[in-house]
Amino acid sequence: MLQRFLDPRVLAGIANLQLTARTVVDGFVAGMHRSPYFGFSQEFAEYRAYVPGDDLRYVDWNAYARTDRLYLKKYRGETNTRLTLLLDRSASMGFQGNGVRKIDYARFLSASLAYLAHQQRDAVGLISFDDEVRDYVEPSSRHGQWAKVLYALDRAEPSHRTDFAQPFAHFQQFLRRRGIVLVVSDFFAPADEVIQTVAPLRQRGNDVILMHVLDPLEIRPKLSGSRILVDMETGDEMEVSPEYAAGPYRERIDAHLEALESGARGAGLSYFRAVTDQPLDEALRRYLVVRAGRF
Amino acid sequence: MGLLSPWFLAGMGLLGVPLYLHLLKRHKSVPEQFSSLMFFEKSMQANLKHRRLDFLLLLAMRLALLTLIVLAFAQPFLTRHGAIAGARIPRLIVIDDSASMGSGNRMERARAEAAGLVTEGSKVATFDSQMRLITVADIARLQAGTARSSLGELARALRGYQESAKTPLEVHLISDLQLSSMPAGFSDLRLNADIKLVLHPLADKAEANWTVDSVTAPSRVRDGKGAKVQATVAGFHTDAATKVVTLEVNGREMARQSVLVPASGRVKVEFNGLDIPYGFAKCAVAVQGGDSLASDDRYLFAVERTDPQRVVFQYGERSTRSVLYFRNALEAATAGAYNVEATPISQDVNYDRASFVVISDVGSFNDAALRRYVERGGSALVILGPLSVAAGKAPVTGEMIKASRYNTRAGDRYQTLGSADDSYPPIGRAGRWDSVRFYQSVELEPKSSRVLARLTDQSPILLEQKIGEGSVVLFASSLDNVANDFPVQPAFVPFVEQLAHRLSGWEEASLNVTVDSALDFKTSAGSRSFEAMDPDGNRALSYQESSKGAPLILSRAGFWEVRRGAGKAQMLAANIDRRESDLEPMPAESARLWQSPIAGQQTASGSTQESETRWPLAPWVLGAAALAGLMEAVVSSRHLSREAA
User: Fold this and answer.
1) What are residue B511's DSSP bridge partners?
2) Which of B49-53, B366-370, B512-516 has the least mean pLDDT?
3) Nearest-Cα residue of chain A relative to residue B29
C-alpha cells in the first residue's frame, strides 16, 4: 500500500517536500526486514580494552564486576558519516516529459536521502549548482539541519547552463572531510568530462554516487512528425525528424549512458540511473548499500 | 491563347486547400523545449532540408495537379495567326434595294455611300429577300425595288458566301435596317468568325408612313354593280390625319372617299359597285400622298368579269333528279355565275368553252370526246350510279368498278363519311359531310386516282385523277337523294359550290399575293404547265419551264398574267409586303451588337488578311495533370513513409 506513494507522479501531487520525504522513507523502511538505522541504536559492535585516556562513560562496569578488568563497549551508531548532496539545477533539469519534471524528481530523491541520513544522525549537507555553486548548506547532524536542506532544495529551480568544471573546483573547499557525495544530475556533458570532473572527489576518499536523473523521453524520444526543438540551456533551435530521433539519437544517447556508466565504474564511482517514471526506493537502496560499505 | 469556358477558372480557389494544409496548418506548431540538443548533429539538417524539399515538392505537385485539372475544364486553346503580309481582306458592299429604300432620298444616299466604299477588288451586291451580286457600274443605276428585305436571309447568304470563298470578308451593309426586317431570333443574324460587318445605316428614326394595308374584293364578278371592295388604310408612326382614298380600275379613278386615319392606327374603307369591263380588270385602291414612301400607297388587285360559266351536265336515264339537285345548289351558291346545260347522254354535246363537265350515272358511253377535252386542260365531275356498275368501269378515268354496295334504310345500316382529306378545298372549305348517310355506293378499285374521302367501310367515295392537262373527280354515289341523302344535307350546297370553283378554276382566276411569292400550281385542278407574263408583258416563265416544275416567283409588284390550257387565264396582283411600310429602324443596341465581335466570333480586323486556327490544349493539359498526379503519388508515398518512421 505504501509502495503506491513512491510513485513519482503521486509524490508530485503532495507538493510538500518534507511530507514527501517522510512518506518515501517511512514507506521504504517499513518494507525492510532489518533496521537501516545505525549509530544511535543499542546494537553491540565490540569490546575493547581500556587504555588510559578513554572516556570512562563507555566503560562496561558490569564486565568489570565480573572480570575485574576494564573494557569499553562500542556500538555501531558511533560510526556516523557525512552525506553531501550535489544537486544539478541547470536549465535542462527543468525538462518534463509525460511525468514529473526532472528537477522535482531530483528534489524528491535528495529530500528523501537527506531525511534518511538525518534520521540516523548522519551529517547532511547540500550544494546546488549549475555553471557555478548556487547554494550551499554545510553538512551537519544538528537538529534543524534537515529543514535547512529542505529549504535549500525548495529554492533550487532550474535556470542556467551546466558546467561541471567550475562548480566542482569550488567543491574542494567545502568537502574537506571524507564522506558520501551524491551527485544528482542529468549529466548532459561529455562522459569523460563528467568522470574527470567528479573523479577527484573519490580520490580524496569520498564515496561518490552518480545519480543520473533522466526522463524516459530523453532516452527514447517519440516524435509524431518533424519538430523544432529548443535547447533548454542554450536556446538553440533545431528541427528534428522522427526518423533521426528513432535512429541515430538513440544510438548516441545509449552510447553516452554506456560511456558514463563504464567510466564511473572505472573511476570507482557508483553510478545509478534514476528515470523519472520509476519509484524512488531503488535509489534509496543504492544509497544504503554504499552507506553500508563504509563499515 | 484563349479559354472556351473561362468561368471554370473559379475552381482555382481550390488551390487554397493544399496551401492551407501545407503551409498554414502544418507549420502552426510552436517549437518544443528539449533538455539538450547535444546528441543532435548539424549534419541532420541536410536530411531535414531534403525532407522540406520533399514537402515543398509535394505541395508543388498538388498545386500543379489542381491547376491543370481546373485548366482542362476551362478548355484552353492556342490561336495561331497566319498573317499574309500585304494581303487585303476582300470587301463586299451590300446595298439594300428593298421597297422601303424608296422612302425619301435613301437610295441616293445608299448609292453615294457605296461609291465611297468601293476599292480595288471590291464586290458589290444588293439584297432584299435574297442577295444578288452586281457590278460596280450598276451602283449608279440602282433603284429601290418592291421586295421585302430580310436581314436573316442576308446573314445566311453572307455565311454561305464566306464559306464558299474560304477567305475572311469585310462586309459593308448599306441599309435602312428596318426593325421589321429582323428575324424572330437574334441568333439568326450570326455571322461567321471571318466576317467583319460594318453597318452604314441610312435611317436613324422612324418615319411616318401611310399605306393601303389590304383589300378585299371578289376575284370574279358577273355584274360588278353588286360587288364590294373593302380596303384597310394603315398609318405607321403617324399622327391622326384625314386621307383621300381612291378606287382605280385600269388606271382610271372610279371612286374617292375621305377617311380619318387615327394616329398610328388603321381604318376601313368600303366602295360599293365595281364598274368594270369584261375580262380582267387591273384595279387598285390608293391613299393619296403625304409620306415619303410612295410605292406602298397603292394596293393592286385584279377582278375578272365574265358571263355565266357554261357547265355541261350529261345524265343517264335514271339520274334526272341529280340534275335538279346539282343545278339548284349551284345557282343558290353562286348567284348565276354558272349556267348548267343539262342534256341526256344520248345527245351529242359540244364541250368547247365549257367551264367543266358533269357526267351523272350514264352507264356505258363513248367518252373519247370527253377524254380529249380533259386532256387539253378541261375538268369533269363523274357521278357513278347503278348504270355505271353495269358498265364495269368509270368513264374517262377507266377505274374498275367492283360492285355496288347496298345498305338498308332500316336501323342504322348505312355508311357515313369515314376519312377525308381536309386539304382538298371542296372538303376543307365546305366542311365535312359527317351527317350524310350513304345507302348505296359504288365500290371502286382505284389504281391511278387519288382517294380524297372514304366511307366508314373504307370504300372510296371521292377520288380525283389527273388526265393530261386536266383532271376528273369521281363521286362514287349518285346525287339523286336515293342512294344517299347528301342533296338534302346542309353540306351539299357549299360542296357543290367549292367543287364547281375547283373544276372551273375560279379559285385561281385572280390572286392577290405579295412580292417574292412562289407559285407552282401543282395542286390545282387545271393544267400544270402554264406561261407567265410579268407586269411589263415579258415572258417570265415558259410552258416548258413550268412543265418541269419551275415555280413562278413574283419578283416585283404589278399584274402578272398566267395563261394555261383550254383557254384558261389568270391574273395575279403582286403587292409590296406591307412589313416594308413600317419605317422604324432596328434599335441602335441591336445594330452595335450585330457588328461587334461576339466571343471572338468575328476576328477579322484592319486591312490585313489573317488565317486563324484554334489548337485545343485540353488533351495536353489532361496528360500533364495525369503526370502530376503520378508524381504526387510517388512523392507523397515517400513523404508518408518517412513520417511513419
Assistant:
1) B572
2) B49-53
3) A227
Contacts of A65 (CB under 8 A, 6+ apart): none
Question: How many Å is the maximal CA-CA distance in chain B?
Answer: 142
Contacts of A188 (CB under 8 A, 6+ apart): A90, A92, A162, A233, B35, B36, B38
CA distance A153 to chain B (A): 20
Could you tell me which residues come within 8 angstroms of residue A106 by beta carbon, excluding any fewer than 6 positions away?
Answer: A87, A88, A93, A184, A185, A211, A213
A243 with B40: Cβ contact below 8 A:
no
For chain B positions 2-61, those within 8 Å of chain A (CB to CB) are: 29, 31-41, 44-45, 47-48, 51
Residue for grid cell 558546467: A163
Residue of A nearest to B45 (CA): A239
Asked whether the whole model's pTM tops 0.80, one would answer: no
Q: Which three cell numbers stand for residue B528?
A: 400544270
What is d(CA B275, CA B253) in angstroms, rounded to the nearest whole number? 11
Instruction: Name the residue of chain A whose CA is nearest to B50's CA.
Output: A241
Give B 314-353 residues with CB within 8 A of chain A.
Answer: none
Substitution target in B26, B27, B30, B37 with the highest count of A β-carbons within 10 Å is B37
- Cβ within 8 Å of residue B482, ≥6 positions away: B321, B439, B440
Q: Enumerate residues 6+ apart whose C-beta is below 8 A from B486.
A: B433, B436, B438, B477, B479, B492
The percentage of chain B sitting over the pLDDT mark of 90, rounded to a whole number, equals 15
**B641 in contact with A at a CB cutoff of 8 Å?**
no
Closest CA of chain B from A107, distance in Å: 17
How far apart, in whole angstroms, are the C-alpha atoms of residue A187 and residue A194? 7
Please check whether residue B78 touches A, CB under 8 A.
no
Q: What strands, in cross-sheet order, belong to the sheet with B76-84? A: B2-3, B76-84, B609-616
Altogether, the residues listed in chain B come to a count of 645
- Give the integer Cα–Cα distance in Å for B577 and B148: 6
- Nearest to A129, CA basis, from A178, A206, A186, A82: A186
- Would an 8 Å CB–CB cutoff place B85 in contact with chain A? no
Minimal Cα distance from A160: which residue of B? B35
What CA–CA distance (Å, rounded) separates B516 from B553? Answer: 6
Burial group, residue B210, by CB count within 10 angstroms (0-12, 13-18, 19+)? buried
Q: Is A227's CB within 8 Å of B32's CB?
A: yes
Q: Pick from B35, B39, B51: which is nearest to A95 by CB? A: B35
For residue A125, give the C-alpha cell.
Answer: 549537507
Distance CA B516, CA A56 (A): 158
What are the pLDDT digits (tens) for B474-497? Answer: 999 988 888 889 999 888 988 998
From the list B58, B638, B642, B43, the residue with the least C-alpha distance to A238 is: B43
What is the DSSP secondary structure assignment for residue B378, as one 8-state letter?
Answer: -
Q: How far is CA B590 from CA B150, B159, B185, B477, B595, in A?
A: 15, 19, 12, 63, 9
Condensed to tens digits (0 to 9), the pLDDT of residues A16-25 reads 556 566 666 6
CB contact under 8 A, B41 and A248: yes
Question: How many Cβ atoms are within 10 Å of A274's Cβ, its own excluded?
Answer: 22
B38 contacts A238? CB cut-off 8 A: no
In A, minimum Cα distance to B645 occurs at A243
pLDDT, tens only, A152-189: 888 888 888 777 777 787 777 777 777 888 889 988 88
* Model pLDDT for residues B506-533, shown as the tens digit of each residue: 655 456 778 887 776 655 545 567 788 8
Q: What values do phi and psi take at B49, rounded to 5?
A: -60, -40
3-class state of residue B159 by DSSP = helix
